[in-house]
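Put briefly, the fold is written as integer tokens. One such record reads:
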Amino acid sequence: MKDKKPTDYKADFKRRLAEIKRTRWVRFSLVALLYLAWVAWLGNWWWALGLILIFDIYITGYIPFTWWKQSKSKATRSVMSWVDAIIYALILVYFIFGFLGQNYMIPSSSLEKTLLTGDYLVVNKVTYGPRVPITPVHVPLVHNKLPILNCDSYLDWPQNSYHRLKGLRSVENGDIVVFNFPAGDTVATKYEETANYYDLVRAYGWERVNNDPATFGEVRYRPVDRRTNYVKRAVGIAGQNLRISNDTIYIDGVAQPFPEHVQFRYYFTSPYAITTEMAYKYGIAPEDIANESKEQAMRFARHLGFDPNLILYSAPLIYDMVEQMKRDGLITNIVKANDIFTIGNGEMYPEGLGRDWSTSNWGGPDGVVIPAKGMTVELDAEAWDLYKRCIRNYEGHHDAYFTDGVAYIDGKPAKEYTFTMDYYFMMGDNRDNSLDSRFWGFVPEDHVVGTPLFVVISFDKDRSIFNGGIRWNRVFTSANPDKPAFEVAQNP
């Protein structure tokens, strides 16, 4: 068989162009424009070479992507039509989830009553600018594990360095933010959903956790974008000085407003047995209210003057709930839990420096400065305790250490350090039931996923679908109704 002459290729090319219908050209033009807009947003024009492939798919057809349409087998055509549709859908989902937004389900009560367990949100990635996928080869629609197979849903290679496309703005005080759990960089796979690896190491020792897979599972490193998703409120942003005193957050010395739906745990007595329906009436999740023991009730009677003949309960409540329950005669005596004992003492971030801090008093009398890109700190013992995790785990200096009053970074003594990323301080509105920055530290900018736009739908796992299981009053409601209060406080 003789090789084709150049004139034959030209003739074949012209023939292919002539056979293309106008509607096909229109479709190609729209896809090409969208693709070029994405390349411009990406800021890497080498990706524009992908137009050659798009042109062939829509116009010339040299690569036989649709070979199956010519098959004589009806079964082949039927199966491949489904495969073709699924591949296109997965590619579309990959780009939408990677660069525009995705769904997210609230798994815990740390932001109640702002966001409820069972809320399904649309998370907007455009506001802060989407991250270019750090782990680009992964299965869409699943996060880090494939169901049933229970194996990783991604490949460790290749890995992209962190790069965020241009967004509308940066994270602001009061934003509710979805982010990858920073302390989830290392996980014990059998405890990944229930316990932090570092807490396990503190409790059981490094040797046992890392050498007892029967109990703890495999110890794995998770890439940044494959770490568990968390959602909290940004109460402090890069460069600000933050401290918490008697539950009030101070930013650069100025007291910040409480979100309208902020909750604290209370102990209270009631003349009535609080039923599930009564709890629902006042907005208390049934699993959050505890009927305390008679011994505990007697202790409260002796030390706080509570009536020992009444029922003692504990529950997270917001101010309006407390006032309404008082008016309805459901509360007689009441006290805030962290007014009578310290919550989290000895468990606060950072180890050593935070040993005397608690959930309601954090940061000491002078507060702490949240790291900002370009900010330089002197590396004394206190600064090392506060920022060592940022330097080692998030900024890549894994072998950095501090000994005899001197910090060593990349094998060299360092008197100071300049940060390469912005960081944020995240907290839940359910203040006494939230594992947040008070416990595990700052959130680096490369962990930020996006901000929720609205609640799509909300399910109450404690009720049936036909008995209040769907919270219709939350459908298409704002995912951050308290944000305006923060904006007013900062821009009076």
